[in-house]
């Protein structure tokens, strides 16, 4: 499954998370399957989001959407995010 990994710094995690959660219908519109939010253990304002998506094309469209740009501004995202795309190559559960 295609995966889009996003890392960025936020001004206030709780405020950002409220805005992030409000975007669930928009992400669904762009083919989102699941999302996992992680916080850095030494810097809790550094957030990583692992997004499983239907297609990389839809993920890139979401990344360029005005809805996302507004949400990032409203959520206190600081600076441009680091974004990478991957495909699953295997999974093991312990």
Tell me about this structure.
- The structure is a single chain.
- The chain is α+β, with helices and mostly antiparallel strands and about 90 residues long.
- The protein has one domain (about 1-85): 2-Layer Sandwich (Alpha-Beta Plaits).
- The protein is built from 4 helices and 4 strands; from the N terminus they run E-H-H-E-E-H-H-E.
- It has helices spanning about 15-20, 25-30, 55-65, 65-75; strands spanning about 1-10, 30-40, 45-55, 75-85.
- The longest helix has 10 residues, at about 15-20.
- About 15% of the residues are buried.
Summarize the structure.
The protein is built from 4 helices and 4 strands. It is of the alpha+beta class and 94 residues long. It has a single domain (2-87), classed as 2-Layer Sandwich (Alpha-Beta Plaits), CATH 3.30.70.
| Element pattern in H and E | EHHEEHHE
Overall number of structural domains: 1
Shape, principal axes of CA atoms:
globular
The chain-level mean pLDDT equals 95
Strand order of the largest sheet: 2-3-1-4
Low-confidence stretches: none
Distance between the termini: 20 Å
Helix content: 25-40%
How much strand content do the residues show?
Answer: 35-45%
Any idea of the CATH class?
Alpha Beta
> Given the structure, what is the number of helices?
4
CATH architecture: 2-Layer Sandwich
- Number of DSSP strands? 4
Q: Could you describe the largest sheet, including whether it forms a barrel?
A: 4 strands, antiparallel
Structural class: alpha+beta
| CATH domain fold name | Alpha-Beta Plaits
Radius of gyration equals 13 Å
